[in-house]
Amino acid sequence: MDVVIPVDSAWAVGLVLAVTRVAAFAVASPVTGRALPAPARLSITFAVALAMAQPVSGVVEPGELFVAGAVNAAIGMAMGWVSGVLLHLFTSAGGIIDLVSGLSLATVFDPMQGDQGGVFARLFHLTGLALFIVGGGLALLIGGLVASTRILPLDAVLTPRPGLTGVVIELVSALLRSAVELALPVIGVLLMLELAMGLAARFAPQANVFMLGMPAKILAAITVVGSAWVLFPDAIALVESSVVRSLEAALRGLGGTGPVG
């Protein structure tokens, strides 16, 4: 006796497209990238895809399914990139401190990002990512993924708008400005230290002050880096308030016209 399992083709196509969008987001976003093991990423991907899947009846041919999959992959990658830009605020702030303190010469391999990074860049990235997740950032990203199917349905066609470039420029400029503000206390202390060493070298050239410059700057950066951590809660609040707004702006720029809620 043959067992026949009825499968709704519209729901099956919708689930495949939802998995494609969520998987592309999981690959591009630093929150769910290398920071999570593969089984955890797969579990989150299928769980979120099941929640956001909807029947898609207009995609029946293999070519149409491939195009729809590519569109959803592009949407997921764009959303992951936006969330990554917001979280790279902390990495950029740490990188600035590494640069001005001289610790950028001692880079370490960061397995979470797959590249070389400075000590403070990695420390700030891990701290910001942990605070973002603890503060409910993962729930915000999942909510943004679910809401994306209302703005850009699973069978939508991408029609980029002229305002998309402005959204990207505004997002990157806000990132750089916030990163400098986060690292500003340490930069100010190191600047005063540089001025003090310059004056000491001017009035006592035989002391060879600059031989002590690098160790002094590293010690000063380690001593006052706590003043930058004090600003982390405000930075996390800024990132969390910007996540949903930036994701919606990116989806609108890609041609989304549907309501958010």
Automatic annotation (TrEMBL):
It is a multi-pass membrane protein. InterPro entries: T3SS_IM_R (IPR002010). Pfam families: Bac_export_1. One of its GO terms (cellular component) is plasma membrane. Keywords: Cell membrane, Cell projection, Cilium, Flagellum, Membrane, Transmembrane, Transmembrane helix. The chain crosses the membrane at residues 89-109, 129-152, 172-197, 209-232. It is found in: Cell membrane. One of its GO terms (biological process) is protein targeting. Its main location: membrane. Belongs to the FliR/MopE/SpaR family. PANTHER family: FLAGELLAR BIOSYNTHETIC PROTEIN FLIR, SURFACE PRESENTATION OF ANTIGENS PROTEIN SPAR. This is Flagellar biosynthetic protein FliR. It comes from Egicoccus halophilus.
